Each structure stands twice: as structure tokens, then as C-alpha cells.
């Protein structure tokens, strides 16, 4: 996924109210940007961090700027992290369409945000093997992984009853005969594996283990990240022990 327009660089002043961030741009202007990330963003929202914003030309938006990337220190190296969780579904759909995700390469149709399940959920991506959307279905729930420690990506970065609900829904889908996938999208290059963050949310960790034990497939891919584009490329192991 290429950014349509060049991103603006700045320094983070503060993140607050979950969805807002004050930023000082390189030219000295101070702006408020929307933050499309509901998590804690641990390690990704330290004041003074170098960050990049996109700019919308939509006059109806209250905040024209959106926080897209942050530079973090990882293993004595600088690494870019994509923090806009709204892009995760797009990145995964793009990777599936391009044949990057071999386990899902045989699906030819993708629908987004389709209602399903007994708990009034929306599946991020509903795949099928024909253009009409019929045939064998695959339900893909996408999670954006920004938390990393010592080369390990962790999810979630905050307790999430909603994420646990999604695992229940996927387990029920699998029990009815469809393919069900929990897909960890990792928009940072300094990660070599993904694990559930049991030290943050033990309930989610047990729910993920149960879902996989009942046939839900856990996939993870990391992205090459630059200020020009984010591109999912490499599969990662999902470790549940």
C-alpha cells in the first residue's frame, strides 16, 4: 500500500484521549492529528518521538492530519512502525490479492466488514473461491501488532473483551465447517515471531489457544515499512506456548 501523498514529518508532543495527538512539524507548526489506534501503543507514543502524518483534503474532516508512522528504538536500531490500525485490513487484503499469503492464495473474492456470528460481529475479510462470493468461505479477523519486545511481537497491547469475542465467533464459524483465520498484521520489520501478550491479557491468551486448538488458523505476516509505502511480505511463526 503506497501513501497517496508524501507524509509530513514531525515530533510527537503528546497522545491523549486515545484518538488525538499533538505534533510539532518540521517547519515549527503545531497541529493536532487523529490517531486511528484504540490500543495502549506501548513503546510507540513516547513524547519527542519522530513521527509521520498523512493529510486529507476532505473539508468535512475535523482533523485533516492522521498519524501513520512512528520511529522507535529497537535492539539499538531505529525501526518504523505503522500505527494506523485502519490500514491493517487493506494491507492484508492486498497481500492476499497479490498471492503473498500462500495459505489463502486460492481464494479469489474478498468482501470486507460482513456481518456474521451470534454476537453481532463484523468479519474483517470474508473470502470465497469464486467471483460471485459463494463457494467455500473463509473468515479472516485481522489484528494489528505494534507492541514488540526483544524481537517478539505481542497482541494485544491492552485488555480487549472485543478481541476475545472475535475468537469465540471464529471458533463457532469453524465448528460449522468454514475456514476461520486470526491474522496478525505486523507493520514493523524488527519482529521475528508473534505471541499472545499473556502478561497483559491472560483471558485473550487462553482464548487464542482454545481457538487454535479447535481449528482456527493463526497466521502472521510482517511488513516492509517506509515513509512511501507499507507492504506485507514475510510470514512469521505464531507461538502459543
Describe this structure in words.
The chain starts with 7 loop residues before the first strand and ends in a 6-residue tail after the last strand. A hairpin with a 4-residue loop joins strand 7 (109-116) and strand 8. Helix 2 (161-175) packs parallel to helix 3. The chain has 2 domains: 8-82, OB fold (Dihydrolipoamide Acetyltransferase, E2P); 85-235, Trna Endonuclease, Chain: A, domain 1 (3-Layer(aba) Sandwich). A 6-stranded mixed sheet has the order 7-8-9-12-14-15. Strands 1-2-3-5-4 form a 5-stranded mixed β-barrel. The model has no long low-confidence stretch (mean pLDDT 94). The protein has helices at residues 88-97, 161-175, 202-213; strands at 8-16, 20-25, 30-34, 50-55, 65-74, 77-82, 109-116, 121-128, 137-144, 147-149, 152-155, 179-186, 193-196, 217-225, 230-235. The chain is an alpha+beta fold and 241 residues long.
Number of domain modules: 2
Strand order of the largest sheet: 7-8-9-12-14-15
Which outline best applies? globular
What integer is the average pLDDT? 94
Low-pLDDT parts are none
Sheet/helix structural class: alpha+beta
The main β sheet shows up as: 6 strands, mixed
